[in-house]
# Entry
Amino acid sequence: MSEIIEPIDKLEPIEDIGGVAQPLLRVDGLTKHFPVRGAWFGAAKTVRAVDDVSFSIAKGETVGIVGESGCGKSTTARLLMHLMPRNAGDIIYDGRQVGRELSLRELRRGMQMVFQDSYASLNPRLTIEESIAFGPKVHGMADAASRHLARELLGKVGLRPENFANRYPHEISGGQRQRVNIARALALSPRLVILDEAVSALDKSVEAQVLNLLVDLKREFGLTYLFISHDLNVVRYISDRVLVMYLGEVVELGPVDSVWDQPAHPYTQALLAAMPSSDPDNRTQVPPISGDPPNPIDPPAGCRFHTRCPFAEPLCGGATPKLTELDGLGHQAACYMAIPGSGHSRAPAARDLHSEAPALS
Amino acid sequence: MSNLVEVNNLNIRFTGERTVHAVNNLSLTLGEGEVLGLLGESGSGKSVTLRALMRLLPKKRTQISGTVRVLGRDVLALDDDALSAFRGQTVSMIFQEPALALDPVYTIGRQIAETVMRHEGKSQHDATARALEMLEVVRIPSAKRRLDAYPHEMSGGMRQRAMIALALACKPKILLADEPTTALDATVQIQILLLLRELQREFGMSVIFVTHDIGVAIEICDRVAVMYAGQIIEQGSLREIVRTPLHPYAKGLLASTVHGAKRGARLETIPGTPPSLDQAPSACSFAPRCAFAQPRCTAALPPDVQVGPNRSARCILVDPATAGA
Ligand SMILES: Nc1ncnc2c1ncn2[C@@H]1O[C@H](COP(=O)(O)OP(=O)(O)O)[C@@H](O)[C@H]1O
Ligand SMILES: Nc1ncnc2c1ncn2[C@@H]1O[C@H](COP(=O)(O)OP(=O)(O)O)[C@@H](O)[C@H]1O
Ligand code: SF4
Ligand code: SF4
Ligand SMILES: [Mg+2]
Ligand SMILES: [Mg+2]
# Structure
């Protein structure tokens, strides 16, 4: 086969400024409260969807966010994408404050998102090729070049352009649509891709195909991922580090293996223990916690988990426990049991900052 | 042990704008006190199979052939009166979406009581007492107060419990469960699964439990039938299916489940997608995706090879002599 190989026009990724030592994304004190009308007399209430959330994502890293529905995962993602205003917090992309040193337009190129609903971000009246080419065109690429790029990307996500380029979103399967969404996100040459439950609607065998694809693309394009999912198995597989959220707050974060092997927050422990067994001879005997997650409208004071926590003590309903470093390796938990000298009966004794990291459990 | 349910050669076809051969040559049995899992990906025919057992499919556009016997009775031949007694008293169903079972305009207590009055001819007083008892059985806190709650006033997990209370109110012999925990959060799902496991034992019910999640099947099933393109392609005990699947699709499905997979290692996948169901299968439906396919696989429908007493697989490679080992 002789084909003229011509270079594919691509948008240049936005420049790497701070080098590897500088996080690609730093989030500080991110907060989003939704006012809601109360049932009685229209009294104003507040959903504390995201409350003082801080974390960073290193270049080339995959950070996972887990937590049950309503804990604020999607709101966090939308705030990072600047799809809605926030109440407070700084979002810093590669050292540049978004909105000041980095324009929203530039941010859109540097950060892209894939949603759970594979239909949501595809215009039903555009062919797949047109959908993928749309973004680059908006950012100034010529029509022919953007179509060329779209076909190239279709190939990268495992869809033969000659079969798929001219089809419409409703003519392909959910798994194929999600591949198109990934191609569409990549068309702007982003460095960070936020995947919000991007594989959750897919059947298991298709989910595995898309996860493999994400791993390949990450390597090929040098991407950084923020991977949001309620599926703990998937998050463990794909993430380097993980944040656990409960009612709008980060209750634990750290390298995924430390968090899985030595979960420090009782909520993380319950979440992990709630995963169905994989061994017919070793079924789950007792549910790790009872009841449903409480309403995020006016959540409990103090530690938000104290209404369901088997270890709750009076101090837990007082002030909010701060995320506290556990091992000097980035594993942190927001629980009084993990804070030396907190006054919780299970907390380690107070220690001075220079002593060795305490052995956990 | 006698079988409560015997399905033989069931074929279900939807006609209309498009023809869908949703269930093809399906046979299964359900024993006394047994929990059978129907495991498969979306569109494989799990819900349609369950609905057929309750005769819940749209009459006009559905063609059914084969036999469905429940407690020895021919379900496909029941008249309307017999059918309404059959539903609820003999067989009852719970769903992923409680909205399919619970009426939004009546309180939970009233719905359960009405069902008991209709099926068992109990007085309002006795029926209400049963409703309270059922809410306690499914461990709804402050059950007495909850009798007067409307479905929308309850959280997701509590609504699911209320639906289970309604389904079990007339002590059915058989419970059909269509992904009742799929939409729930992890910490709630495990509570509902363990509750169902306990109630199944306590009531001595037989259960057919539909799920796409192998982990869920592991928590609750005794036996598993794996579905693909409207057929059962393999069945066996839970342990056999989990540990030594025989059919290439069942093997692939289990292998591609991200369960403790090593980071960075490639996940096993099944290439391609399931076939369209616009024609009745005349070959192995999995052949286009199967790494072991050979001409024999597409020459005819592979036989359902009996491998053991309750074990079979629909694949030409499965050898009754060696597979059981
Ligand atoms: N636009 C909105 N208006 C009011 N409340 C909202 C809005 N978006 C989300 N919420 C609420 O914020 C909380 C967090 O939601 P979300 O971020 O979607 O959670 P998750 O993605 O973890 O399931 C929920 O209680 C949700 O109901
Ligand atoms: N009432 C109906 N009319 C036409 N097609 C239907 C109907 N119900 C289900 N189907 C089709 O039958 C097939 C099997 O569906 P279903 O049993 O719901 O699958 P699942 O295994 O996901 O429960 C699917 O292709 C579905 O689209
Ligand atoms: S701070 Fe108290 S209530 Fe919160 S998780 Fe720790 S022990 Fe439980
Ligand atoms: S019958 Fe043939 S194509 Fe079908 S699963 Fe067996 S080996 Fe594969
Ligand atoms: Mg979400
Ligand atoms: Mg279904």
Remarks:
- Residues 9 and 57 of chain B are 17 Å apart (CA to CA).
- The two ends of chain B are 25 Å apart (CA to CA).
